[in-house]
Design brief:
The complex is a heterodimer. By secondary structure, chain A is mainly α. Chain A has helices at 7-26, 35-47, 50-82, 84-97, 106-113, 117-141, 145-153, 158-195, 201-210, 215-240. In chain B, strand 9 and strand 10 form a beta hairpin. In chain B, helix 7 crosses helix 8 (246-258). Classes of the chains: A mainly alpha, B alpha/beta.
């Protein structure tokens, strides 16, 4: 019998889950709930109407933080990348800020925005903004000079050049940057929710532990984070395959 | 047919209006702290509607010369004048055609050809795009993206994009260099046909002697670095040119001789 391509990972996953369940059953002093208990946890969350609520809360923050970062970073990156002197001025600051984990901003986020959605959104913004900005700056530097010269030849000014030449020319690299950054946003939201808010999947995890060591719920939260993250990534990937972007694969 | 073209060429020369002139143009770059002279004392006069080929070995500065005339580079000394005005930058009245890599890969054929027409009303824009798509023989490919086209077709798109804005001067920098030899021959014929129809002033850079002698009214032969004008050869053979006629061969051999290559290969 021919095994379909998508069946392979599914079968493998089932084998792993089976092994996990077996291992848990053979060690009664378990430090980890098994897959069945985890599934029970997820069912529990659904029953109490919490699962959807928490996923929506997390996605809400990610959406805002991510989109704010995109809206600011893309035009700014185009401008900085275009004006080479600006790049020289900005570069040292960007290089110093870059290695600072977005999580290091948590105290400042709380100081500025208090405990709540804004603090979480700010943290996601911080986590997305720099990588996106650097992606755009580098992508602009990589735009072939012929495109820019052709644009200048047709009489385009700086703003039109950015809109009609630089932006479309960097879209393929930008899409990759967006995909990576959205992943970062999803990582940061969990951490932010553990500290700065009282809803969302990150909050679920700390709350389940603090309120009675419900490790089945902890794992349920982790599984859901993974699943939603996978779906987000898939969503951006399908955007990358749009017809208007297919030219990028040729190079 | 050929007599008629020849007569037209005569009339054109009789009018003798200067389109472009370089005066004592020189170009030097600093490379690794050393001053390198790329172009020296280039004095060239090009007439309106003329087809001039700049011929020279790789690295002789002919592309630099073309970029300078198009306004992408500022000369170190001297100046370029078009219609008597000093050239200070690129301008839509004079379009530079790169090798086919200059087409925008994110736009369709239609989008590329209409790129310079943003200021026109929609109807006129569509009409002009259609006209030039037909002229370069790309009907049926309006919605195709450049990666779906062959090298020769991409080159046609770029020529059409240049023609669409109705420039008076076209600069072509080895436009057919990346094409296979058969496509290259076809493209030369098409360029001549378009030139005869549209009467643009054309400056065409090439390192291919046959290409230069087949296309040009005059061939500007350049010496290797620093680039200087070695000789200007008028090609007094009517189009369509018989590339086995004695006069054609004589002119070609003369240029080969000039570069010091006669009968050596």
């Amino acid at each position: 019998m021919k095994i379909r391509a998508w069946l392979r990972p599914v079968v493998f996953l089932l084998v792993l889950l089976g092994a996990w369940q077996l291992a848990v059953m053979r060690h009664p002093n378990q430090l980890l709930p098994g897959p069945l208990k985890t599934a029970g946890g997820i069912a529990d969350l659904v029953r109490h109407g919490l699962l959807l609520k928490y996923i929506v809360a997390s996605l809400f923050r990610v959406t805002w933080g991510f989109f704010l970062a995109v809206i600011v970073a893309v035009p700014l990156g185009l401008a900085i990348g275009w004006y080479r002197r600006a790049e020289m001025a900005f570069n040292p600051i960007l290089q110093i800020l870059r290695p600072i984990s977005p999580l290091a901003w948590i105290p400042i986020a709380i100081l500025w925005f208090g405990v709540g959605d804004l603090a979480a959104i700010f943290l996601i913004f911080v986590g997305c903004f720099l990588p996106l900005l650097l992606t755009v700056i580098n992508a602009v530097a990589g735009v072939p000079a012929v495109y820019i010269n052709a644009g200048r030849n047709f009489g385009l000014g700086p703003v039109q050049l950015m809109r009609l030449i630089l932006f479309p020319a960097i879209v393929p690299r930008l899409m990759t940057g967006l995909r990576i950054t959205l992943g970062v946003a999803w990582l940061v939201v969990v951490a932010a929710e553990m500290i700065a808010v009282n809803s969302g999947l990150g909050f679920l995890i700390v709350d389940a532990r603090n309120a009675g060591n419900r490790y089945d719920l902890v794992l349920a939260g982790m599984v859901m984070i993974g699943v939603v993250g996978l779906l987000l990534d898939g969503g951006v990937r399908s955007l990358e395959k749009a017809k208007t972007l297919r030219w990028a694969e040729e190079r | 047919m050929s007599t008629k073209v020849y007569m037209e060429a005569d009339v054109k020369k009789a009018v003798f209006r200067t389109k472009l002139r370089t005066e004592a143009l020189g170009m030097a770059f600093d490379r690794d702290g050393q001053r390198m002279s790329v172009l020296e004392n280039i004095n060239l006069e090009v007439f309106e509607g003329e087809f001039v080929c700049v011929l020279g070995p790789s690295g002789c500065g002919k592309s630099t010369l073309l970029s300078t005339m198009a306004g992408f580079l500022a000369p170190t000394v001297g100046e370029v004048r078009i219609d008597g005005e000093i050239v200070r930058g690129p301008d839509p009245r004079r379009i530079f055609v790169f090798q086919e890599r200059g087409v925008f890969p994110w736009l369709t054929v239609e989008g590329n050809i209409g790129f310079g027409l943003g200021k026109l009303p929609r109807a006129e824009r569509t009409q002009r795009v259609e006209h030039y798509i037909k002229m370069v023989g790309l009907e049926g490919f309006e919605k195709s993206y450049p990666h779906e086209l062959s090298g020769g077709m991409k080159q046609r798109v770029e020529v059409a994009r240049a023609l669409a804005v109705n420039p008076d001067v076209m600069f072509l920098d080895e436009p057919f260099g990346a094409l296979d030899s058969i496509t290259r021959m076809v493209m030369r014929g098409e360029l001549l046909r378009i030139w005869q129809a549209e009467r643009k002033t054309i400056l065409f850079v090439t390192h291919d002697i046959d290409e230069a002698v087949q296309l040009a009214d005059r061939v500007v032969v350049m010496s290797a670095r620093p680039g200087r004008i070695q000789q200007i050869v008028p090609i007094d053979v009517a189009h369509p040119r018989d590339i086995s006629s004695p006069r054609y061969l004589e002119l070609r051999d003369g240029i080969l001789n000039q570069i010091g290559l006669a009968h050596k290969i």
